[in-house]
Amino acid sequence: MQEQILQAVDDVCRDQCAALEVALAETISELQDVLRLDEHHRHGHDPDQLERALGPFAATNLNVGSLSRVLGAGTRSRAMAPARLKRVQELLPTLGEMKEACATSLRSCASVDIDKEENEIRELAEEHLNRVAGVLRALRIAQLEIRSKYVSETHDAVFAEFSWRQLGPEELRLCPPFVLIARLKEDSSAQLLKMMSLLESGMPIKIAALRSSLRQVYASGLDISVPPMMTIETLPLAMRGVYLLQSCVADPDFQTRLSEGLSAPRPGVISVLCPRDDEEQAAFQGRAERAVRSRAFPICLYDPDHASGFVTCIDLSANPSPDKVWINETLSGRDAQGSAVEIDEPFTFAHFAASEPEFAAELTAPPAVADRLVPMTDYLEFSRRQRLGKLPFISLLAKDGSIVRKVASPMMALQCSDRLHLWRTLQEISGIDNPHVNATRTTLRSEFAAEQEAQLKSQQLELEKDAARRERAAVVSAVRKLVVSLSGVEPSDS
Amino acid sequence: MAPSRLVRLPEHTVEIVSDAGEGAQKAAIAFAQLCAKAGNGLWTVEIIPSEIRPPPHTIGSASGNRIRLAERSKVTNAGNRANVVLAFNEMALLSRLEAGSLADDVLVLIDDHWATHDDERYRISYREVLDKVRSRGATIREVPLERETIRHAEDAQQGKNMFAVGLLCALYNKDMDVLDDVIRGIFKGKAREVIELAVRLADAGYQYGVKHFEQRFEIQAVPTDIPKVAMNGNTALALGAVSAGFEICSMYPITPATSASHELSGIFEDFGGFVHQAEDEIAAIGVALGASYAGKTALTITSGPGMALKTEFQGLAVMTETPLVIVDVQRGGPSTGLPTKIEQSDLLHALYGAPGDAPKVVIAPSTIEECYYILSLARKIAEEFRMLVIVLSDANLATGQQLFDRPDVSQTPRRPPLDLSPVPLGTLPYDWDPTTGLSQRLIPGQPGGMGVTTSLNHDRNGKACYDAERNQRGHSMRSRKLAALQQSLNAPSVHGPPEGDLLLVGWGSTRGAIEEAVDIARGEGLAVSSVHLQFLSPLPPGLREIFAGFRQIITVELNYSDDWEDPLITKENRRYGQLAWILRAATLLDIDCYAKVPGRPYMPVEIMDEIKRILGNQSGIESPAETFPAIAGAN
Amino acid sequence: MSMLAELCVIESGAADPHTLDEYESETPRWCKGCGDHGVLAALQRVLRKNNLDPEDVVSVSGIGCSSRLPHYLNTYGFHGIHGRALPISTGVRLARPELPVVVIMGDGDCFSIGGNHWLHAIRYNIDAVVLVLDNEVYALTKMQVSPTTPDGWKTNTTPHGTYLQPMNPLSVVMGMTNVSFLAQTATWLPAHLDETIEKAWEHHGLSFVRILQRCPVFMPKAFGDGGLNFPVVFLEHEDGIPVHPLLLKRGATRAHNHRDINEAQRVAVSVDPAPMGLLYRNPDVPTYEEIRWNRQERPDHRTFVERLDALMDRYTVS
Fold this sequence. Notes:
By secondary structure, chain B is of the alpha/beta class. Helices cover 36% and strands 20% of the residues of chain B.
């Protein structure tokens, strides 16, 4: 199940190591240039060097020995200070070794299982991160030397105590990631707590939380309400500095998001829905899409570095119809009587669970007496009193084309409620929908309507005034014409 | 038919001319390569129509090449009047006649197609031109270029030139197999039928020549192991710019400099450089100066009118002591003048054009080979001395092609990297060495070296100042750098004995013709030698000593001087050629000049005539030093 | 240089942040009340804010009062010749694309003698901050008419009043291909001036800023007595140049979408009230340096010699 993830990790690792190698190669070349420049300062004006630099045209016209004397006077003093020269010369082999390492030891980014002891994990992470930090430290020192900005008094101390903690976010982005694999169980609370503990350290590790089943187990006796346990999707609320990606193959940008997630410069959690051990790719694709559509596995991205506002950092756009709660499906089939019928059925978690083997026991045939039956979506909106004695059901299209009803167990109803509440929470914290927005919308609408009405009223008034005026003018003109035709005399204009 | 007679000659000059687009140039290239492979020395010159699309069959339409081939491996100039001309029509022939480039007894090979052409005007014109040429002493050989070509190809326009090359191959007794290889090489990449047709036509021409030419020429060659290259001066400059390690060339299109930029544009990016075409000449030098100031010495290439526009920037380069290299491919002036013709008249402008006192280095290559090497020297001097270096080439070097030893590319030095080392506290931006005027250049990025580089007069701190003493000092420091360089120059070598009756002094591309004339003259027992200057500023040492060995000194240069014969011209008002003017001032000697503006190179025979004229008149003249008594104290 | 190497340079940069006086060179010799002082101070603040090492900044100027600025700024400065600051800056950018460049010119320097270079520099879109200090006169040479001198004003070369309408440089800039940034501000609006220069510094491309400036000696009455009576409108946008509340007594604000080129062109043509702020910004126009340098890499010496050898083969006649 984890091959896909490991492949992605390997790809990212390979790219980062390649980039490091390139940077090291360039830096080595620039350092060699610094040495070459020093050589030039010491000997560039020696007659043989001068002759070579001037080229054959010079030979007949110039006395190179004399020119060498004229030019050589000042430049030997520009040779590098011995301390700096020594530092540069010692840097070169170190960088060379690191460049080798990029292709070998750094390259093999094996991932670690989260079941290991927490202390052990922390040690391994520190080791990996400090190895990468070592390379970047060497690069920083080298670049300072190249630009003649390395000042012993200041920088010796800075670089003596150098660990991954000194690295900047852009540098961290280019580090091969340290990945922990966590296979989530049905009751994942303990695992999530361990994850949080590791993430709290601030180390830029990446935890790949993998599962192929979406069944959650809750403590029994819970009323249908919001369960107290953690969900992985709301991790950003608790740990605002942790990168979160929840995605699967239903997301067209899955591979890209995976790579970006693995390179984020902060601790991160990557939650992925994986195929079962012997599941075919096509079947899994369909299952993943259903999981996303039913809000059983919402695709979320939380990138704290994306913007300064929380709302902008959360991205639900990869989910179908993120502005809706449920997505409606039209079931066309035959009802109990056998007549053709079409019903609009919101696709809830329970509908998704209907096709998952681990939930088989939770969906049963309805009783003969139908008066206690209530559609699941309504049931979820009922108050506690209204729910007493009711059985939530969902409608499904059976293989033979008939529309059947299945009753959900209390555990199933609990999970549906949990998922609904989670989805609504995600909508609100990502700014798609929340009461404040709705209130503003309503206020604006009424304001706008009022404005329109006022405008209409004033226009009406204007029209009436105008009509009255015209009427008066028409009467005057008619009377005048009458006078003329009767008397043959133009009346005066008074 | 009797077998043809083979005439052995040391050298020959042949011109191939046609209408533009008929392929005379390609024929010439093929013929030149054929001779080069045989080991002949060569000098070729393009014959360019003055318009882009001139009407065909007119004088203005003549296009082609002149090829001088010789036994000796080095041909140093375009030679005298042509001995053979192969013309595709009579107007092309007439144009060469009127250009004065054909010898009176030239052998004319001409397409006889026009003799029997349907259009009567062509028939008449053909007869008239041939009569004219014949009356001067030429030998006419009418050849069936068109007629024979149609037998093999559908379109005679696209095949005549290959038949023509075959003819020449026969005329000069060259190896047809070698010509076969050459043609295949030239047409490489084209369709097989095209190549085969070309070879067939050339062979047909060769067979025709072998059969019909009563007299053929043998310019035997001395094959050599040393690999040779053939290119024109502008290509040599472009390759030289690459080998000198330039990264940026900034230019604006101007004839005849542009082809150097074209070459460079095509190759530079493979070597990490690029050519920037600026919005005008001033911007071109501005970009080059900005790049140089930032630490990467840059190059700009132009011609006369461009030099004029760049003058203010030249002054800026000198005042700020920013290294810069300008290449001026000189052409006929003044103003727009003769854009495609040959002249050497930018010398005084290069030396003194910028307002105020702006001392700069001016050097001039004298051969195409030197065009390749000179930019390394120019860049090195510019950077070490913080000076502007002007390289004066001309349209002769630019368009002529010469064979020379293939440069040893493995010897290309590695240029030092950018110096961003910190500047020690207290270093001044113009830390002039009081003796030499040299100072260390600071470039942006060096810690501790911040400061303004200003076009105003400044002191050692780089601060603008206006007082008399510091103005004098600034001038003195910039000027003495020339003296410092001059101290390391060698005196020029004399071509010929160090003493004699006449010394010719030249500069730039006239070297080959001058030395050839001197050699011929000495061969006839005349005591004449020559000296060729490559550094014009500073002038090399030892000139007065050299000049003292001769009764008379004249400069030979392609720029204007007044004619002594003219009744209005007196000793007081005569205007001299540009180098003569400089040398008179520098040496206080009555140096005369042979300076005319024909728009083409001097022929050795012209210079020879002048030598004879001068020596003929010489009997009354004392040493030139006596006409201007030396100023007391001068060396 | 690869991105990673560049990052290492930036990250290791701030050992000690620079102080303002580290960017000061000598005492400026401008007249009292000259707006150039404000521009200098604003520039120094921007350099300090971005913690740039003085040796890594290049300032280039032409000739004129404002062009003295490089003398007073402690960076590498080039005080060149009249009208030619832009070609020199292009050369610096092409040779050393890692060094930021600020160009300072006057109105005559840029719009008159330097006009050709100005037009083409916009099209090249070199990455540089270009400040034109427009006082609508040639001040250093003692009061001659400039292309932006207002209608009817008397100068030493137009003693009976100017003959032509002044040019509008904003509309010229908006009309040139590849324009990527245009802003206008004034020295009598110091908070706005600071923000504008900051914005110009951030932009990747040619940031053209026209700074209106009143010469206290030769044009004391210009711009409605130095801005007191000069109608302006402040262009406002979320990403634009922030308008400090105090500025509102000088003029009203107007919402303006600086990403829309048509809207920018419309605003650029309007002169009364003068539009202050960010007229246009397009961050996606490639710079000339990128276009040229992205095409090739520098070969190492061995490859260089091999290629030169192969090139020479083309001309070899065996």
